[in-house]
Amino acid sequence: MWLVAANVRSSADSVIYNRRSADRYTNKFNVSLRVPELHVGRIELDVDNLQAEINLGAQVANLVEINAGIQVGIEKVNITIADVDAELELVIRLGNLVDIVNRTLESLNLNPLLINILNEATDLVDSVVGAVDGLLGEIVSGDSSISFLIDNLGEIVAQTTDTAGNLVSSIVGNFEKNMTYTGAQEILDGGLLQKTYKYDALNALVNIVFNAANQVVQAVVVKGGGGGGSSSSSVPTATTTSNAPTSSATSTS
């Protein structure tokens, strides 16, 4: 915690700075800048680029994350001030944020096992959401199955399990070669562009997000499909280099 309180007076002969006691502010404010009396004889100021920023970041485990900031920017300013009396006061209160963090810490102090429980729950949720968002569909052949997913680079990934029960993945295509652009698009915040593609082989729709450089930053399946069949030749394995399944290679049920 820091605090500044000052009284500034300017004259032709001298400039006097007086630091006042800030004790009476400490119970109300976390940051206080106070200039109760400011007299300016003459100031000429040229500013090309001035940036001021105050940031606060606080995080407690996976329970609370707070980001607060103040940012001011000035560019290409020419100011002339003559014979002016002014008063300036800047007050920043962080009491509510501090209370939130303190209450969270008290809860963790009483229940330290919450940290491990939250971490395990977060890992589980992330893995489930990631699988659902990227799942294009699944093909079942006899006792075996193969899942097709799209990753956040637009690559189509085939996943299956080997005889030992281990998950095996291989890239079998990508959105540019194996999907069809539907023509639907949406402009998102941050200069991002979302386009919708269709994967005919599994009748799936995918929203793919591009940045300003036309690079893929995210791919989310909005409609997944599936297929089934009795022929094992239609199911690519992790060791094959064949292309992603097409509509003619998949029989739907």
Strand content: over 45%
How do the SSEs run, as a string of H and E? Answer: EEHEEHHEEEEHEEEEE
Mean pLDDT: 67
Uncertain parts: 1-26, 124-132, 228-242, 247-253
Distance between the ends: 67 Å
Structural class, judged by helices and strands?
Answer: alpha+beta
How many β-strands, per DSSP? 13
Count of DSSP helices? 4
C-alpha-based Rg, rounded: 31 Å
- Taken from the alpha-carbon principal axes, the silhouette is elongated
Largest sheet: 5 strands, mixed
Report helical residue fraction: 10-25%
The strand order across the widest sheet is 8-7-6-5-13
Query: Number of domains in the coordinates?
Result: 3
List keywords for this structure.
253 residues, alpha+beta, 3 domains, 5-stranded mixed beta sheet, 4-stranded mixed beta sheet, 4 helices, 53% strand, disordered N terminus, disordered C terminus
Structure description:
This protein folds into 3 domains: 30-90, no CATH class; 96-124, no CATH class; 132-223, no CATH class. 18% of the residues lie in helices and 53% in strands. It is built from 4 helices and 13 strands. The chain has a 5-stranded mixed sheet with strand order 8-7-6-5-13. A hairpin with a 5-residue loop joins β9 and β10. The longest helix is centred in the middle third of the chain and has 22 residues, at 113-134. The model is unreliable at 1-26, 124-132, 228-242 and 247-253 (pLDDT under 50).
